[in-house]
User: Fold these one by one.
Assistant:
Number 1:
Amino acid sequence: MTLFLLRMRPAVAASALLLAAVVAIAIIGPALAPYNPYEIQHLKVNQPSSPQHWLGTDEFGRDLLSRLLIGIRPTVMVAMGATVIAAAFGTFLGIVGAYGPRLVSFGIMRSVDILLAFPPILLALLAVGFWQSGVVSLMAVIGVVYTPHFARIAQSSTLQVMQQEYVQAERSMGASPLRIVFRAILPNILSPLMVQATLTIAAAILLESGLSFLGLGIVPPEPSWGQMIGTARSYLSINPMYLVWPALCLAMTVLAINIIGDYLRDLLDPRLRQ
Amino acid sequence: MNALAGILAFVVQKLATALTQLFVVATLVFSIMYIMPGDPVLLLLGSESSPSPETIAAMRSRLGLDQPVLTQYVSWLTDVVRFDLGNSILGGYSVGQVVADNLPRTLELGLAAIVIASLIGVPVGIAAALNRGTLVDTALTSMTTIGISVPVYILGALLIILFSLQLGWLPSSGYMDIGRNAPEHFRRLVLPAFTLGFGLAASIARMTRSSMLEILNRDFIRALRAKGMSERRIIWQHALRNASIPVVTIIGLQLGNLMGGTVLVEAMFNWPGLSTLLVDAVSSRDYPVVQGSVLAIAALFIFINLAVELIYGLLDPRIRRRRT
């Protein structure tokens, strides 16, 4: 493992470590929190960093470090869940779009084109307002919003793979469409989909935190980074560090995922490996 | 004659696509209430603990929800075509009027962001390309990576902390009518426009850098050098002009992201544009306003895309001939 990390570029290795830490904290975060993250203390409102509260307190006197630590979980859950949903549905739609009957594929790909034309946050806003807020619905909404991106990539990769001799060989030997899809096509379109998945995780984190920032995502008192940034916005003049900490965590995480995404793209695309 | 017919066919086809998109969006916006789980009437009356059946029925008929779905759909579409977007449930005001008030503010913010992004992005890209492989290049390129990754609400907050709280140079948020106080209007535009434009500036810088590098390797540049033309003239008059085509393309492609960014930037800076209208309406479940503002944003978006595609098509015959 160490050797593997050492052989990567330093920025990539650092990003991998950071992301491993983020995921670990998402799982065990509540155990690490020094204080109860929901405990309101009116006498300790909006305090700066101190030996007791390393990162200070928020507008209800709650410990910021504890809230940051447990705020990772909803963000990570939403991002991962949304990516899985988007990848599953998108890949399915994309393969059908390339392989299915003409009329069906025309319908799918035109809808995908229209949806792709709109900024994700706009689509998410439309759905979120009329839905119960919370982790599960955010997952579903963000997952649906990013489905067309996967469908577009799966479709174009499938079309490419279908030209290859081995697919034609399978077909001429009388393989069933299901066998062709699972044995010949899917394994060969995985790498662009994996790159898309890393990009989507980063985008989903940003979208979730954007919605939470607007007050339309994770519901208080449950914290999430975006929501903390949104709340801290009102206390900028009193306690600017309240905003800086979650902003820093969020920016670092997204940057790390993007760096890994770039690395994966280079790694999986032999043309760029030089 | 043939060329003219080709151009005409291209324009007609693009117009038809845009109108189809508008129609699909209008249908989608109409169907929000039906696709979404939950009764919009109950959502609206949600503040009352248990509304009586009479209240629900009254609200339903006030909103026209007691009509058959198809009738509602047709009347919604005809209203939209006549620019009648209905009235706000909560405020009672005309949605069309509010949209018309807020639209120019969003446009102004977006336009200012594009101008700022170009003013920063192009020189940075050129500087990075001319200093390729040096420390300057590495520093500038890393800055663009950060610029693309940093979310607008984080950048906005940092700018507010620096320029309004620490230095006190610019107001932290709010809007001023240009007719009432023009200098203050522009002072309040600076931070939101810069925040919105920063990511675009980074994209422009990257594209300018790679495009300049490619052009500088071309034969005609070598020929100009061999002819003894000054390096400054080669760069500013010949290389930049040829390198600018992909840069203009990236600006066109990034307009969508820019529109998405306005949602957060307007909220961050209390800028009373279309996105603020939408977010407020979503929070208060005032769905005629949601429908109206989404439709307006989508229409704006479709027309910008249409304009970009038409301009490219008219400039470059190859795009026109491509089957779309």
Note: Residues 7 and 235 of chain A are 44 Å apart (CA to CA).
Number 2:
Amino acid sequence: MSHLKAMASRALQLALVLWAVVTILFLMFRLMPGNPMAAYIDPTFTVEQQEALMAQFGLDKPLWEQYLIYLGNLLQGELGQSFRYREPVAERLMTLLPNTLILTFSSLIVAYTFGILAGAYLAWRRGSVVENTAIPLVLTTRAMPEFWLGMVLLAVFSFWLGWFPAGGTRPAGASYDSLWALYTSREFLSYLALPALTLAIYSQGLPLLLMRSNMLDVMKEDFVTMARIKGLSNWSVVVRHAARNALLPVMTSFAIAVGYQLQGNVVVESVFSWPGLGRELVNAVSASDYPLAQGAFLMIAVVVILMNLIADLLYSLLDPRISHA
Amino acid sequence: MTETLLSVRDLKVSYQVGKGSIDAVDGASFDVPRGSIVGLVGESGCGKTTVARALTRVIADNASITGGQILFDGQDIAALPEREMNALRWRDIAFIPQSAMNSLDPVYTVEYQLNEVLRRRGGLGRRQARARCEELFEMVGIEAGRLGDYPHQFSGGMRQRVAIALALALNPKLVIADEPVTALDVIVQRQILDQLRELQSMLGISVILVTHDISVVAYVCDRTVVMYAGRIAEAGPMDAVLMEPSHPYTMGLRNAFPDLKGAASGVLTPIEGAPPNLAFPPPGCRFAPRCPFAVETCTTQQPALGMVAPDHRVSCHRADEAAKLRQEAARTETWLADA
């Protein structure tokens, strides 16, 4: 019963956060300098034509009325028409979202798998030469700007060695029966490799350092000492007890990292011409395509909020102290 | 089969601190007879926990056993290769920690943690392990229905019972209990101690009970070993050591605790001063700087652990004057005048 209640209050919280995001987005674009119609309306249009268009988009109505219409449309999943492409924003974004999600998740899964293992290993080898060289190295990867790293990888593996294509998701002119066929094709993987690697190198530092410092803390816990006194194998002590406990905050950080990564994608997607949400967002903003930018922002916000929810659920799944509290 | 299960001989344990080293245990010798509870008592930092942990050979990274022998069942486990020592752990020598809250892994159920020991260390099958879990819980007075609970779902006293159940899981010969009731309130303390005593005599195991609380020793122990600044001050049968202490430190400890039999004896007298810094131990007897009876020899020569009565050893230059010193020690002024 209390479980249901907790879920209900969590859902209510989500709805509130979502509403706040939606409202801020609405106000943000209306407070921005410049006329939203500038990109859409041909300068040769007459004043009457311009006003007719403003009326057609509902931009002549008072702000509160626009807000209500906007909310009503959102509830129906209607994100409006893109000024630039003259097509529904929702449709356009939905074709880009899978590209972004695939890039995000593949890079993060690589980063976290590597980070967790390496972090645990470095904690275990504390004070060794390996650790002393690895930590500055990791900090260096953390400090490198993503776009720079992306360009270096492009220069080396694409232009110089020619192992990987330079950008996009598929060879020019190639067509696939379905999205699934595209995403499972070998060509797609070779297109995915460099941008995913860039993001993975950039992202592995957080889980690695987090896992390492958690491990160092947990290794000092009494239950780890007790596991040794029990005569359990090294593997049991380090993996079953120390790593299992050290993993809790790292797993939560994964879900939150997905949210951050979506923002980081903006840069890497631009470098690799990856047709995702991030690149679209940059283009939309620079082209004053407000409905599209607004929609992209909203979609990113929704993913971030959802991932936070997943982080909470994951934590209660992994830590009995939360779920049984 | 000898009468003595464990015999610690001149044990030395050092901690590496910076460039120097500190001898936290500097030549400790005592015996644990089979089927007895031995209280290892002393104030914080006297090395009692270090001794307890040295017996399992799971000690801090910067600590090492630098000398002496630990004869367990006639075998020197201080010199045993790690593999063989590990085979002994928990099967023969189990441990009850001070804080069962932190010593149980929070993310696993209690049954998982019992099973881990029963199956991985004891080689039991799934069904046998389940039956043993239920048996153990019955022994410590917790209903078997709570086996599936997580550590945080138990109260402090219950967790300590779980820790006892864990320690008894593989029928060890020796259980080392490191301050097992210190974190509990007095009523629960008594329950846990009663239980420990009952199980100990029922199973015929030996227990080393590490504590700073002399009343705990008086309540359950058969024998007492008093430690001071890394050395043994006095060791012998509990009654003899506590009722007729021969070391001034033990006399002082007696004065500093409420009367053991519960009779209101009036004022408690503290031992003034603090234990010596073990990085620079005083020459001679380590208690000398705080001892109201110290004479010149005490500050220059280290006293040997000598026999005052059969089975009762004391490390004091004036041990043969013990009866007289006891009378003086009973007076509060003796301890205050010296401070």
Note: The two ends of chain B are 49 Å apart (CA to CA).
Number 3:
Amino acid sequence: MISDNAKKQIDSWIEKYPEGKQSSAVMEALKIIQKENNNQLTHDSIQAVADYLDMPGIAAAEVATFYENYNHQPVGKHIIRFCHNISCMLNGADDLISHLETKLGVKTGEVTDDGLISVKKVECLGACVGAPMFQIGDQYYENLTIDKIDKIVDGLK
Amino acid sequence: MLEIEIDGQLVNAEPGEMVIAVTDREGISVPRFCYHKKLSISASCRMCLVDVEGAPKPQPACSTPVADGMKIHTQNDKAKASQKAVMEFLLINHPLDCPICDQGGECELQDVAVDYGSDVSRFSEGKRIIAPSDIGPLIQTDMTRCIHCTRCVRFGSEIAGIMEMGGTGRGEDLKIEPFLKEGITSELSGNMIDVCPVGALTSKPFRYELRSWQMNSINSIARHDLVGSNLYAQTYKGNVKRLASGDNDAVNETWISDRDRFSYEGLTHDNRLLAPQIKVAGQWKEVEWDVALDFAVKGLKNNILNSRNVQKLGGLASATATTEELHLLQKLLREMGCENLDYRLNIKDLDNAIHLQSNIKLADLEHIDQAIVIGSNIRLEQPMINHRLRKAQLAGAGITTLNVKEFDFNYKTNDIIVAPNEIANTLAGVLRVLVEKSAEEVPAYLLAVTPCAQAIDIASSLLNSDKTVLILGEHVVNNAQAASIANLITEIAKLSNSLTLNLTVTANALGAQRVNFVPNSTGMNVNEMLAAEMRAFVLLDVYPEYDFHHLDEALNTLLNNDVFVISLNGFKNDLVAQYSDVMLPMAAMYETSGTHVNINHEMQSFSAAVGAPGESKPAWKILKVLADLLELPGFHYENSTQVLSEVAHQMTPVHEYDTAINLDKSTVEVETIWTHSPYHTDALLRHATSLRASKIGQINTASINAATAKSLSLSDSDTYLGVPVDITETMADQCVFISSNQATNTGAL
């Protein structure tokens, strides 16, 4: 379930914590496994991480379901993580999300037919100064408008 | 000692205590949901907010440590207002389904809502709903009712030792659920029902049966293991409807095993023996009690008493019988001059029987520094004793196990896997190291022993620890060197200043020992009886295919037409019907008063929670009347308490036994250890349908390693002695470990 490459990466995180506290590496380990498996965590992969870190499966699942950056459903190559928290909401995020949904022909949480893009509503990403905003990969896109969104989305390959 | 003031009342408190512990002790009521005295503090429900003078905000009583001079108000406006506000939040998503909720009437949320809730909800939005999920045959979930107190989560990780429930999602999407698809599998899982303050986790077998206020609650004792857990039998119209845990810190604290909690289902099984029956010309006939007892007495007279061959009479009993029943049966036999009696039906060779005392208190087990567990899957076999060991391990004790197979313990153990015929040798190695360290002379039997590395480790762990205990388990009962193993343990205990715990006997076997239910030197033990030419037997709750080690011999003897067999049983059994001449229906657990003797030799008495069903009677009464009809003296009992006081006035018998240690190895090529799986150890458990359906109830495997499997030409799809083979590598060579929920098949052993 866990590739040698992933094991190597997880081990380097385990080393950062005191001996016997290997379960502290659970967040990074889940991230590494998610990356290797089409950006998605499954029941089995969460269990595999838990087993590798010698912790109960449910404890790893608690972490995996708490944070937005773990995906439990199939996702596209690009995930548009749209903030809908207070600042973005007050600045019209809900309308922009509807626009995005119409444009892509998917609801939030779904993937486009070509598997390229999925949309996810997330909580505050700490960029209220540029609300409304979303995140694709490691990149923040702020002060969004319908035109700006169209341009960004059309540029995704 | 500190002095604090609660609601104007001065009370004493220990430094470090939480406010809620003090209020509980003083009888001051503070509402709570997440706090439980035996679990860690989570302070998540906020229901126990109290006003502490000087603190700007109300403080949770469960996580506020006391300080000298602290002034606390649990009832003033500020406290009340906070508690009411929290209550309103907790009720936001809680459904108003109390009329169809099994917790109704015994619900902490319902009770507290009466005191602190508002009459009308201000919440008009939709309530959240959680889809139902099946977590096994014992616990019913309805997580829409869950208030996220996390008691079940903490119970799992802290007490049961496996975190099975957890909180997934966040915020409004937080759900308490198990991760594993197989649901909840712990041997202590039923306690989650008791700790759940609402109707989210309730008893599945009890679902929609009754309201708590309709039932009587009677103190009783569970008799499936050596602990004798205290519990409440809740009854309605003559039936036990539910069992709930009782408090006794010296015995079971506040927990009971699933085995103790759900066994009552067997009481109403269709298979109960409900009327006396006699066999006339090979045909069973239901008759009145007086007819059946006359028939039994005549049978005894014709076969034994009239011909004065009382040495051809035998009495056998199951160790699940009460102390009173065992006492009366031995008295009945001995008054007739019969010394052939035994309860050790499962022992292959009684000359090789284990003699080892138990001299550590259950509560002291959690304070040991080092335990050596030999031949036991203690977690499933004695769950409440295991719970104490687990507490010791969490507090830093080292636990070393010496088993033929690696078992799944719920704490860290140092597992040593040894073949059955190596156990004695390994222990002899430990003893040799200890003898050499003590500068005593090395006895002759140890001269040829070279301690292995593990033996040296065990010896040094015993010497380097202060409080040590040696625990001998039931897998060793029929080991070819059983007696020597026990004697080695006694010697090791002497030299290492260790205490010992003998788990090779179970249920009420210590009660049987207390009333001397074994023959003296003139009588025959069970195996001798089965080999002798007998004319009559009295059998107390014996189920041959589960109880006898020598089943073939037993059936051979009992099925003989010349042998008159009187059977007292709670359940019907085909083999019993074949060999018996008269069957007398007896009360099962919770249907009779009696006494259980636990591992600490404590006599715990209980009264009958319900009457016996049909025509069946408590066995002590049956035996008393039988004795009267036989005109035996000294059976003028009016109740079982009089029987017990007679037992209490007798000395505990002391039997001489052979303390020799013989290290000659068995030459058997493949050793087989047969054990009953944990939920099949007595007749009541074998009839408890929900327990049987649980994962532990389904255990039926013959564990064997690949090399041994190959030498026996077995694969994963085969059976061995009728039990499915499970090939595992964490297993000693040249042996098979069987844990079976089927009838004993030890004929070939």
Note: The interface with chain B takes residues 43, 46-47, 56-59, 61-62, 65-66 of chain A (CB under 8 Å).
